[in-house]
Amino acid sequence: MNPQQQHAAWLTRRQFFAKSSLGIGAAALGSLLDRDLKAATPDFPVSHYAPKAKRVIYLLQNGAPPHLDTFDYKPGMEAMRGKELPPSFLEGKRFSTMTSGQAKKLVLPPMTGFKQYGQSGAWVGDFLPHTAKIVDELCFIKSMHTTSVNHAPAITFFLTGGEQPGRPSMGAWATYGLGCDTQQLPAFVVMTSRDKEATCGQIFYDHYWGSGFLPSKFQGVRFRGGGDPVLYLSNPDGMSREVRRGMLDHLAELNQRHHADFADPEIATRIAQYEMSYQMQASVPELTDFSQESPETLAMYGPDVMRQGSFAYNCLMARRLIERGVRFVQCFHAGWDHHRNITTQFEIQCRDTDAPSAALVMDLKRRGLLEDTLVIWGGEFGRTPFLQGDIADVKNWGRDHHPYAFTMWMAGGGVKPGIQYGETDEFGFNVVKDPVHVHDFQATVLHLLGIDHEKLLYRFQGRQFRLTDVHGHVVHDILA
């Protein structure tokens, strides 16, 4: 096949219409371009009302922190230690396969002591002393609930509004609606870390920060935990920055011609990505240079702050990223999946994440950034009030997945500080007051960014999609 025939064979239906100049081709071209351009290029920013948050830092604790051992204190559970949970709590409930067939569901009280802190009187577990110091800056939501009992679908639901991969992530929706305040860095950046003991087998799937059916320029850019944060950012040996600039200009010209022929939004994405890479060659080295940070600041984030790829390092990077105009930063930390090691790994996990999370909030506040930066901390579900395992085998104690009630906290960005919203029952099993569904949480985050969750839409396969799917309500009671 000669090149001309091969090119014709590769034409897609859309490209065929775009190349046609008469009859149905012209009509289809007008229809397709009008639809695609409206969908892919909204008027930035989409502002339905005045935003209280300009940017978001989401500290997602992959594996699910146990709410009963961190923030949802239930002192009455001690009297029930080792006794079976009343059957009424278990009727109609499902759990993971690890305890679904377990004959007895024995009550396991909190693994640590609790104390009250601050003017708000919030209860915090003893393994989180740094978070305890900032409770008056936090809004605890103790009535979260979700639908999935497994990690990947539950995280996907939190971040995309659906349990199946394929929909845009929250960061993609935010940058699609609001655009970016910087040309030197991506609008949406993702960083991942995990416990040094590697006890958690959870995987960081790309769709957690993907753009789904939105143009791919809205997907998150993952910064690596070692070496260059982004692969292939450096020029090859023998290529100067000036030569790279000239090469990109010529490549952009070729891509622009191709875009004029086919009107494919992914070609525009490719042009933007090449240009972003060029800009990041200058911005990333400065971003990752912590030498100008004060010793006091570094000490706040803890001893791991200089170890690239640690949660502490990523928290400090998150602050530096939003200072430079990044819209949405997502920091994942895995290691909370305590099925058989809660008596040992839970304390380690708290130690690794407690100081950095608290330091980020206080660092933002003292720099005047917390007021319009929304910080979110939480996992994909909670963990059971009953024991997973044999009560005689203390070293292998654990808690199973629990979607029916759990706790998250938020700070800054227009939420009320020093409050606790919602309640659970005496075992932290079910929500008994002011339930907050995942879609309610998503609607509230978008609201704080100035977006009506019912109006930020994208038409795909004949349907108008949104982050909150077909329901969700803003939780107005937590708004400042």
Provide structural commentary.
This protein is of the alpha/beta class. The chain has 3 domains: 1-40, no CATH class; 53-229 and 288-478, Alkaline Phosphatase, subunit A (3-Layer(aba) Sandwich); 235-277. It has helices spanning 3-9, 13-19, 23-40, 67-70, 87-90, 129-132, 151-160, 170-178, 241-262, 265-287, 295-301, 311-323, 345-366, 438-448; strands spanning 55-62, 114-117, 122-125, 138-145, 188-194, 221-223, 328-334, 373-378, 382-383, 401-402, 406-411, 419-421, 423-424, 431-433, 436-437, 458-460, 463-465. Strands 1, 4, 5, 6, 7, 8, 11, 12 and 15 form a 9-stranded mixed beta sheet that branches. A two-stranded antiparallel sheet has the order 2-3. Strands 9-10 form a two-stranded antiparallel ribbon. Helix 2 crosses helix 3 (23-40), helix 9 (241-262) packs antiparallel against helix 10 and helix 12 (311-323) packs parallel to helix 13. The longest helix is centred in the middle third of the chain and has 23 residues, at 265-287. The radius of gyration is 24 Å and the shape is globular.
What labels describe this entry?
single chain, 480 residues, alpha/beta, Alkaline Phosphatase, subunit A, nine-stranded mixed β-sheet, two-stranded antiparallel sheet, 17 strands
Q: Class by helix and strand content?
A: alpha/beta
Report the average pLDDT across residues: 88
Second CATH tier, the architecture of the largest domain: 3-Layer(aba) Sandwich
Major sheet summary line: 9 strands, mixed
- Number of beta strands: 17
**The level-1 CATH class of the largest domain:** Alpha Beta
The proportion of residues forming helix, as a percent range, comes to: 25-40%
Strand fraction? 15-25%
Count helical runs: 14
Report low-confidence residues grouped into runs of 5 or more: 16-40
Rg of Cα set: 24 Å
The dominant shape is: globular
